[in-house]
Amino acid sequence: MATLDLAFPTLAGLEEVLAAELRELGVTDLQTGRRVVTGRGNRELVYRANLEVRTALRVLINIDAFRVDREQELYDRLRATNWRAYLRPEGTLYVDVVDPGRWFRNTHYIAQLAKDAIVDQMRDKYQTRPSVDKGNPDLRIHLRIHGEGEVDLSVDSSGAGLHCRGYRRRTGEAPINEVLAAGMLAIAGYTGEQPFVDPMCGSGTIVAEAVMRATNRPPGLLRSFGFERWPDFDPAEWGSLRQAAMDRIVPLRQPILGADIDGVAIAIARATLDRAGVLPLVELRTSAFADLTPLPASLETPGLLVTNPPYEFRMETGDIEAFYRGIGDTLKQHWTGYIAWLISANARAVKRVGLRTSQKVPLMNGPVETRFCKYELYRGSR
Asked: pTM of the prediction?
């Protein structure tokens, strides 16, 4: 089976987490960059990465790298590329252009040029042509132009971004990206061997990702992928890999609790977890954090709390600094025996928690710079 050059875009701050996932999966020659990990693997690893990896946004296959000085050279190179390996002549396509470079015109023009090259090739060879579909194409092409006309050409095996797990329909006021939630759990060291609580769970994304991680449930079970519409798709191989992944699902070993003061948010979380097929494994409560009774934890098995509280500019909470002070008071008074992680973009409010952070990890929540803060709540002295 041919070895492929692969690229796995991710969110800033999750590169090392993703590299660890890919190493365990069997991807070789791993290198981390900013918001991307690259490596090598075969078609089986492409299938498995889409299904099983939690912190990649996409799985790209790099099919060419070259240098051009003029737009006509770019057109000629793309027209000579073997697109039939990825696209049926009557299929649909979309071209994403990143960094068109100073020698070229805008991204829209370059995308149009690339589309024309592919369409012209197909029309000449097969007397029919593919059409453009931005929403749900059979083939999504990534074209990156950088430096002095250096071109990286990739095809996207994922289709929709891998954060689209298929379990989320409605969200609360401040939803967190599924890939970010999975990355936070990995950074926090969640393995399923400790009691887990999200006391401000909103629409349930962190809880859903926690259940899937704890039970080794593949995050891509509920969705389809771009490679399933490629001419060389092997349904027997895909079915075998998918069944093998389901066979690796394990029972939940420690309880998981999601809570929120907003009853509507809890109703949305319940629907989210039901679609994910994990609702019976989770306890949901409508409760303010100050009134929430923790799951039992011990010195031998400390509990883990991970949550995404309001940042103020996303949601109205009144006095945001008093709100964070209340979080700190509740943690100190009721959550000894736990390790707590909070993600927030409001550095001034975080200081009002009043507890010493043992770790601060910079992460991006969409376009917002945040810090993922760790608090170790020991019983008595450390």
From this structure: 0.93
